[in-house]
Design a protein that fits this description.
The model has no long low-confidence stretch (mean pLDDT about 90). This protein has helices at about 70-90, 110-120, 145-150; strands at about 1-5, 10, 15-20, 45, 50-55, 100-105, 140-145, 155-160. Helices cover about 30% and strands about 25% of the residues. It has about 160 residues and is an alpha/beta fold.
Length: about 160
Amino acid sequence: MILRESGLEFDFTDAIDGFKFDEPDKQNHHYHGLSHCMKAVDFIIELQNDYLLVEVKDFHDPEQYHNSDSFKKLRNDLKTKLRDSLLYRFAQDQLDKPVRYLCLMTLEDALNSRLMKELKRIVPEGIASTKWKRSLAKSCIVANIDRWNMNFPKWKVRRI
């Protein structure tokens, strides 16, 4: 299954289903219609054992994210996209498998590592509380194109 976003092409070869979740076309079956009040990840991919919620950002000026305010805004945007997407899928009764949150950010490795550490702090992986029956996300990974292709060789991404 081939999906495209921000000039990048993803090949989710083993996907059962996959679609652009932040679909802008009102006529499209996957249009969620709540962009005025909820954020959405770019793709939702269904695999045999879990769902991938995928966010893609190809930055024109990655240097600005060394700035604390820009970094915090990006981190909070990624958190909100995951939480709103989970809430939307919950309301659809479409969370019958564990979720992995994957973010492809065209930032340098050090910045992506910092971003991943911060996301894991504010969007806990696994069972975050003894009172929880389920996790929000089984894992949360932030990677650039090179790291993505190294860590996910069967889900290649390339520039188009």
